[in-house]
């Protein structure tokens, strides 16, 4: 489903975040991206989502060479991707339901359908009953669940998460990993980046380890 071919990424200013990286992720696979801060994890996820472009090499998603797609085509592809960002991006002036249904309204769903799907997503992440809650009344773990609900509300075939448990206590962090597993179990391809590798143990999924922009042992 995803293929990196000799990908290098040099940011404006000259910092080389990725150095000639090649790998493949199969459809339906759940995979972890590990490495210390600055290793290149976010860069990998941004390339997968077409948010940033490789300096050299190619990124393929569903056979599409992302570098060859028009903005429209990239936009269409993104409708099949769910992203949990590191910095939440929760709208604190809207309740849980409104946060989750907004992405659907943006891609053109009518209010009724958007609300039905949003309620399903909220239920799925274990926030059923909290639809009208203000985000600031949620715990850190619940806020992260809200972000997951928003990322999966359009039923993406690919779910990517950047440090989804960065600010959570260990028990909550493991809960979030379990939540991602439930999406993997129904066929979604899931990529989770995190610096804490102990969260990835006991799953038996592949771990892509990075160090200074290269694979490490
Ligand atoms: P990680 O997610 O593993 O912490 P990143 O992919 O975010 O690593 O970053 C890798 C390196 O690239 C870091 O040193 C970071 O400072 C640099 N970097 C990331 N994004 C940018 C950017 N937009 N402009 C310049 N440098 C960047
Ligand atoms: P991460 O560890 O996930 O990369 P950071 O806090 O390093 O998180 O980066 C947060 C955001 O800032 C990212 O979108 C990244 O692309 C951008 N960024 C990181 N380093 C730099 C940099 N040196 N110059 C410009 N933007 C950067």
Please specify the SSE layout and strand pairing.
Blueprint: E1 2-10, E2 16-25, E3 30-34, H1 41-48, E4 56-61, E5 64-65, H2 71-78, E6 81-84, H3 96-106, H4 111-124, H5 140-152, E7 158-162, H6 170-185, E8 189-194, E9 206-211, E10 214-215
Parallel strand pairs: 3-8, 3-9, 6-7, 7-8
Antiparallel strand pairs: 1-2, 1-4, 4-5, 9-10
Helix pairs in contact: 3-4, 3-5, 4-5
The structure holds adenosine-5'-diphosphate (2 copies).
One adenosine-5'-diphosphate binds next to helix 1.
- The count of β-strands is 10
Largest sheet: 6 strands, mixed
Poorly predicted tracts of residues: none
State Rg: 17 Å
The small-molecule ligands in this entry are: adenosine-5'-diphosphate
The total of helices stands at 6
- Which series of helices and strands comes N to C? EEEHEEHEHHHEHEEE
Taking strands numbered 1, 2, ... along the chain, how are they ordered across the largest sheet? 6-7-8-3-9-10
Globular, elongated, flat, extended or rod-shaped: what is the shape? globular
